Amino acid sequence: MSVKIIGSYLSPYVRKILVLLHLKGIAYEIDPIVPFFGDERFAAVSPLRRIPVFIDDRVTLADSSVIAQYLEERYPQPALYPADIGERARARWLEEYADTRMGEVFIWQLFNQVAINPFVWGRKADEAALKRTLTEEMPQVLDYLEAQLPHAGFIFGALSIADISIAAFFRNASFARYRADAVRWPRTAAFVERVLALDAFAQLKPFEDKLLRTPIPQHRAALAELGAPLTAETYATAKPRPGIMRI
């Protein structure tokens, strides 16, 4: 069986799925495109023009939560959703909170201002909007997480989709030089450090760090130099176009 992932290593949604593949021991090839640069073939497999796209011998899927549940059902070991029905529901809620609320704040309000706007669209950051994100929106998210996360270990004892989904967004926050204040949010700061230190996250770090220092048109070549498991062909185009959805 061959698994193909379409989407950049810098995306928290792609990162979530790559971590799951690593934990479940599933090899993959990746077409590491930034979604704004996807061609019409990309639009055909991802009609919302979102990443990741997951393709295997049975399905083509273009939503990270749907992909995660498919992987759990097809490859149930190690289990990454809690066995208890209540805990499983809560894990799915925390994944949803990460994908939506954290996606809006961490990606479209923070990462968009410091990375996507200047490097994709050539626009300057909106300093007023960025200040509002850092002083109002981010603290609201972190206050909620502080009440949900454990003093030690993982949320449900064993590592789960909830831990992975939340931590994936903090990696993007670090790209924007933002970290949770360990004095104000001690549980959150310690939790993020624990989860991102896992090998499943750490093995992605060289690829991510390289891309942060590389112009988008050179991403594929830079990853090839590092030995990333690239697909034979790419759906990338030379010019970007806006997506049709924010989150």
Could you explain how this protein is built, in words?
- The structure is a single chain.
- It is built from ten helices and four strands.
- It has 247 residues and is mainly alpha-helical.
- Helices cover 54% and strands 4% of the residues.
- A four-stranded mixed sheet has the order 2-1-3-4.
- Helix 4 runs antiparallel to helix 5.
- Helix 1 links the parallel strand 1 and strand 2.
- The model has no long low-confidence stretch (mean pLDDT 93).
Q: Which regions have little confidence, pLDDT < 50, spanning 5+ residues? A: none
Rg from alpha-carbon coordinates: 17 Å
Which H/E pattern describes the elements?
EHEHEEHHHHHHHH
Total count of helical runs of at least 4 residues = 10
Percent of residues in β-strands: under 5%
- SS-derived structural category: mainly alpha
The tally of strands reads 4
Helix content: 40-55%
Query: Taking all residues together, what is the mean pLDDT?
Result: 93
Give the CA-based shape.
Answer: globular
User: Looking across the biggest beta sheet, what order are the strands in?
Assistant: 2-1-3-4
Q: How would you sum up the major sheet?
A: 4 strands, mixed
Span of the ends, CA to CA: 31 Å
